[in-house]
């Protein structure tokens, strides 16, 4: 099962009758549940979190770690701890279809449908997505939700003003506006959403630690985002319509650890002020636009 266990744990697994059952779907699910039951609590939490993703979703290592960091589910050892959890779940066969970069590092995996079903069943009422939502559901306890064109209508009907405990939200449709009351939100993923405007009220999400607006038609990144002092991850890739970025004030995001953009004109100024920064894949140097390489000397 991939983790070091004491003798008592292995004897418990050996004596479980599920291992001697016939080979069918129910038995496979029982074996998966047995494997889950013998995970340590921190891995159980990480596994259950993955229920927010749809079936056959490409789960990127960095994204999962950053999302869990935003929710405060990782200690301050952060990325290293998150990578350890990810690899442990992979070793326990909860992930498959591994993708690696040129250096052999794992960059993405998927979950088998049966494994995903288990994760969703374990998250109970805390995760709401296409597979487990319907009109009439009580979503007052929902902590994570994935919204696309197929379930947007249902969520619109029941969720406004009723998602006070929501921590992580993925939106792939044009349903995000100022009427949503989400003061407890920690992670907001709008990657690929059909939206053109990010409401200025986003600056009121004081606990927000993760924001991704990549592949959207958003034209203006509101200045109010520079008040998100707990923001750790900010991603705006392939934002071809984006014309206005508060470049001179993003340095106010004192908790920022990861920032990703791919347009020279979107590069914030005074990057050296972001002393917690760990990810910066593009840095433009030049007298007319861009910054000075000396700016980066204070980054850790």
UniProtKB/TrEMBL annotation:
* Record domain Disease resistance protein winged helix: where: 52-119
Q: Name one Pfam family in it.
A: LRR_14
Which InterPro entries does UniProt cross-reference here? Disease_R_plants, LRR_dom_sf, LRR_R13L4/SHOC2-like, WH-like_DNA-bd_sf, WHD_DRP
Name the UniProt key words of this record, in alphabetical order. Answer: Plant defense, Repeat
Give every Disease resistance R13L4/SHOC-2-like LRR domain span: 177-283
GO BP: defense response to other organism
Origin, by domain of life? Eukaryota
Q: What is this protein called?
A: NB-ARC domain-containing protein
Q: Which organism is it from?
A: Hevea brasiliensis
Q: Give the organism's phylogenetic lineage.
A: Eukaryota, Viridiplantae, Streptophyta, Embryophyta, Tracheophyta
